[in-house]
Write a structure and sequence with these properties.
By secondary structure, the chain is of the alpha/beta class. It has helices at 15-24, 29-32, 67-82, 109-114, 128-140, 196-203, 219-224, 227-231, 249-258, and strands at residues 9-10, 38-40, 49-53, 59-63, 99-103, 120-124, 147-150, 153-155, 159-165, 187-195, 210-214, 237-243, 261-269, 272-279. The strands form three sheets. It has a seven-stranded mixed β-sheet, with helices on both faces. A four-stranded antiparallel β-sheet has the order 1-2-3-4. A hairpin with a 5-residue loop joins strand 3 and strand 4. The protein starts with 8 loop residues before the first strand and ends with a strand.
């Protein structure tokens, strides 16, 4: 467990110079801007790290030694808080008391971004390294028992499968070795896999107001494993990042429409697409 008892402090002299230097060295904007929010935790802790202060006041661990976790955290921060990937349409913002599902939670940035409003959150992350930071972030912000975490992959069957850990961004770990192969998958680990229908049934959940799904190519597998939840409209709204090298966006859109969901936003950018969908009125 990480020791967070040391009082954090804002980085002092040379702070602005460091930001300018990062920019001059060619770091993209979404890596530089989070540095403005970086606070330092004593290096005497068991896991030397800094952490980010989110706009809603929650804190996220930014490790010094685990570089692929660090890079993934900054990348995900930029997606959520700079490019607003999950808040492009106001009606998809989480409301007070909502039950939220975060599939592919990584270290919990989306979970934390909505935790000030959500009544209950289920956060799912199969990568044990990322999951460790996820539960530490939840404990750091004292969000138990409103946030329940699961170290499991979601798909369309029960059993075990291989998870390929990306060397560059830990958040891009995938069930498909072909995804981001150029970035390297020097490590693969066996993980438990279950279906969303079975998980929600075991928890006695009968309503999900918002489901965020970012599973690096396993989007259709997750949806096929949630057919009952979709058929009964237990899940009211979804935001899905679709990975186009693995999944055809038309298949995802068609799958949702066959279950009487309306797609409100479909934004393609490079090798991914962002899809917003909700139950038809």
């Amino acid at each position: 467990m990480v020791n967070f008892e040391n009082k954090p402090r804002i980085i002092g002299k040379g702070f602005i110079k460091r930001i300018v230097l990062l920019k001059r060295r060619g770091f993209p904007l979404h890596y530089v801007i989070p540095s403005l929010l970086t606070y330092e935790v004593s290096r005497r802790s068991l896991c030397p790290c800094r952490y980010l202060i989110l706009p809603n006041g929650f804190r996220v661990i930014l490790p010094i030694r685990h570089q692929n976790i660090r890079r993934g955290t900054l990348h995900t921060y930029s997606e959520i808080f700079i490019y607003n990937e999950y808040s492009k349409l106001p009606e998809y913002n989480v409301c007070n008391g909502d039950i939220v599902l975060d599939v592919g939670a990584f270290v919990g940035l989306y979970t934390l971004s909505v935790a000030d409003k959500a009544g209950f959150i289920i956060a799912i992350e199969p990568n044990i390294a990322s999951y460790t930071f996820l539960i530490n972030n939840i404990e750091l912000n004292k969000l138990h028992p409103r946030v329940m975490t699961f170290n499991v992959a979601l798909g369309d069957f029960e059993g075990r499968t291989m998870l390929y850990i990306e060397d560059w961004l830990a958040g891009s770990s995938t069930l498909f070795n072909s995804w981001h192969k150029d970035y390297g998958h020097s490590l693969s680990i066996p993980v438990r896999i279950t279906t969303l229908d079975n998980l929600l049934k075991s928890l006695g959940i009968d309503r999900i107001n918002m489901a965020k799904i970012d599973v690096e190519g396993a989007e259709l597998m997750v949806l096929r494993g949630a057919m009952e939840s979709l058929r009964t409209h237990l899940i009211r709204k979804l935001i899905i990042e679709v990975h186009l090298d693995i999944v055809d966006i038309r298949d995802v859109k068609g799958f949702l429409e066959r279950h009487n969901y309306k797609v409100d936003l479909l934004e393609v950018r490079g090798d991914t697409a962002l899809l917003y969908g909700k139950v038809k009125d």
